[in-house]
Amino acid sequence: MTILQKKQYEPLTVETAVNLTKELDLFPENSILSCREIGDGNLNYVFHITDSINEKGIIIKQALPYAKVVGESWPLTLKRSTIETNALKKHGEFVPQLVPEVYHSDEDLAITVMEDLSHLTIAREGLIKGQSYPKLSSHIGEYIARTLFSTSDFALHPFEKKRLAVEFSNPELCKITEDLIFTDPFFDHETNDFEPELREDVEAIWKNNALKLEAAKLKLSFITDAEALLHGDLHTGSIFASETETKVIDPEFAFYGPIGFDIGLFIGNLFLHAVSREEAHRAVIFEHIENTWTVFHSVFSELWEQSNLEVYTKVEGYKEYILQKIFSDTLGFAGCELIRRTIGLSHVKDLDGIADKDKRIAAKKQALALGEALILNRNKWNSLTVAITLLGEKTA
Ligand SMILES: Nc1ncnc2c1ncn2[C@@H]1O[C@H](COP(=O)(O)OP(=O)(O)O)[C@@H](O)[C@H]1O
Ligand SMILES: CSC[C@H]1O[C@H](OP(=O)(O)O)[C@H](O)[C@@H]1O
């Protein structure tokens, strides 16, 4: 019996992944296939199958019944694979040029078979090596605006929006975000992870009631504001890029949440990268940060003008109200991401990879101070320039 006929979960190996590929008939008959497991993320297996005759490849991503980074002591739903497949397809309806094509999926095996993007580089890795990816922020601004507007109540019939919100109910993965981004870093929790040199700054966060109150409000917004079908984990490690092309992968955290969360995570990761660079080399990243919002604002506004479903979109001032809410959420979520990636579980290579200890600690202190300022000032600041300017000065 073939692996597909069994209709039951089993973790793939490089051998069974090749057998599965043959069963799916995705390569010509004369192919010579080889396979490597290339997953470098926290959660899943990723098999890269290549055909040396026709020089083509495919990717099979498989969820494990636990979080790979921790092991079997952290069980995790296999349903995340279906969520990922369906989110890639749903977002692909609006931005096919910015997501990988899905060739096949199987709920029992928890796999997504998709386009091989190996000709591109993970944006985080490229940025660390000094690449600037001129199209990155325009593409991501467009990705966010189109996927989020098109899955919101401004574009969908209320029955369809609510059907999608049920289809993409993702409680286990949301709980990870609720804990790791919005809760643990603000308390003395065992999952936190930081250098002793940061203890004073971290304890100041734990004692800062005003900051914790704002983090609580942001967490509530994440849990309750079912505005659009989010990617849910839009960091620079979830984006493939080149000089001309951008592709967003890994939407297993997708669910109906606040629009500012995707924008905030992306901008937050650009800020994390900016503070890892010497000041003289930050300008190109600051331009990406500002351009992300500019492009998002422009495409979202364009879609808003075309919307015929929600009568209130024609009421003067409503669009500005919505965009102001999204902007304020964006700053707050970016601030939470800066703090969690610095002192919580699951750091970023941009900061942890700084070999010189003094420079690493200085960059991390800057990330924490900027994170706090973004959270506390999110309803006061009306542009990202203020946050960028603060990086040259004292931030809290
Ligand atoms: N479509 C793809 N094409 C080529 N490589 C991929 C593709 N999808 C994932 N990868 C590789 O696998 C790694 C982990 O994938 P990712 O979806 O981020 O997994 P996880 O959910 O475990 O974080 C990526 O960093 C990338 O190197
Ligand atoms: C133990 S889950 C921590 C972290 O991992 C996820 O990232 P990725 O799947 O891209 O490796 C997500 O960001 C979670 O917050």
From TrEMBL:
Residues 36-275 form the Aminoglycoside phosphotransferase domain. This is Methylthioribose kinase. Its EC number is 2.7.1.100. ATP binds at N44, K61, E115, D116, L117, D250, P251, E252. The gene is mtnK. Catalyzes the phosphorylation of methylthioribose into methylthioribose-1-phosphate. Belongs to the methylthioribose kinase family. GO terms for molecular function: ATP binding; S-methyl-5-thioribose kinase activity. Keywords: Amino-acid biosynthesis, ATP-binding, Kinase, Methionine biosynthesis, Nucleotide-binding, Transferase. It is an enzyme of class 2 (transferase). It catalyses: 5-(methylsulfanyl)-D-ribose + ATP = 5-(methylsulfanyl)-alpha-D-ribose 1-phosphate + ADP + H(+). InterPro entries: Aminoglycoside_PTrfase, Kinase-like_dom_sf, Methylthioribose_kinase.
